[in-house]
Specification:
Strand content: 5-15%
Distance between the termini: 50 Å
Strand order of the largest sheet: 1-2
């Protein structure tokens, strides 16, 4: 480890690359909230803390026909609770329609639109 990196580690109290990761995650979380993107892709609930947030691929890229394209496709990226993201990786994707979560995944059937509308009304009522 070079002298400069050691000095950074000493002042930050952690490896500079770890600090950079934390900063990037905080930036994503803050910008996501400003853009009203703080909703979990899996369950549809609000992600309230940067510690609970994870970035996930809507369509799994691993072992796909075009993994590089799917991996870097920004339209294939969503935010989720860590727990929702990790549990979804252990089970097959299941679209339960109608639901707010299905709406968040892109379903626009009347039932999902209605479910999402009701959900947003409840959120506004809490404010």
């Amino acid at each position: 480890m070079c002298k400069y990196t050691k000095e950074k580690k000493k002042q930050l109290g952690m490896n500079p690359s770890t600090a950079s990761h934390h900063l990037n995650k905080q930036l994503l979380f803050t910008l996501g909230k400003k853009l009203d993107m703080q909703w979990c892709f899996q369950c549809g609930a609000e992600i309230e803390s940067v510690k609970d947030m994870s970035v996930e691929h809507k369509i799994p890229w691993l072992n796909s026909e075009d993994p590089v394209s799917l991996y870097f496709d920004l339209d294939n990226i969503a935010f989720s609770h860590k727990s929702c993201n990790y549990s979804a990786a252990r089970r097959p994707t299941k679209q339960s329609c109608p639901s707010t979560a299905s709406y968040k995944r892109g379903c626009r059937c009347d039932g999902c639109k209605s479910s999402y509308s009701d959900y947003r009304k409840q959120l506004r009522a809490k404010s």
